[in-house]
Design brief:
mainly alpha; 0% strand
C-alpha cells in the first residue's frame, strides 16, 4: 500500500520532534551506550567484544535516526515539488511554455 510521502513525513516529524519523542529517545539510547562503553575497563574479561557490541549498537541507533530524517526530508521535498507544480499551473499558458 503506497503512502503519500507528505503525510508520512508529517506524521514522522510530529512523533520525532515532540517533547519526549523519538528524537529524545534515540539520543538517550545513544548516550547510554557511550556511557556504558566508558565504564568498561581494558582489563575486563572480553572488553574488546563488549566495546565492539556497544559501538555497533550505538551506530545502529544513529542509522535509525538518519533513516527517520530521510523520511522527513523526502516528504518536505515532495511538498515543495507539489507547491511548485501548483504555482506553475496558475501561470498563464504563454509563460508556462518557457518553463
Amino acid at each position: 500500500m503506497e503512502q503519500d510521502p507528505i503525510l508520512r513525513a508529517r506524521r514522522w516529524k510530529a512523533f520525532y520532534e515532540e517533547k519526549g519523542g523519538l528524537k529524545a529517545i534515540l539520543q538517550e539510547i545513544g548516550t547510554r551506550y557511550i556511557q556504558r562503553m566508558s565504564e568498561i575497563a581494558p582489563w575486563e574479561a572480553e572488553a574488546d567484544r563488549k566495546l565492539l557490541r556497544l559501538a555497533m549498537a550505538n551506530r545502529i541507533v544513529g542509522q535509525i535516526d538518519n533513516l527517520i530524517q530521510v523520511i522527513i526530508a523526502d516528504g518536505q521535498l515532495a511538498d515543495q515539488a507539489k507547491e511548485h507544480a501548483r504555482k506553475i499551473e496558475n501561470l498563464p499558458e504563454r509563460k508556462r511554455r518557457w518553463l
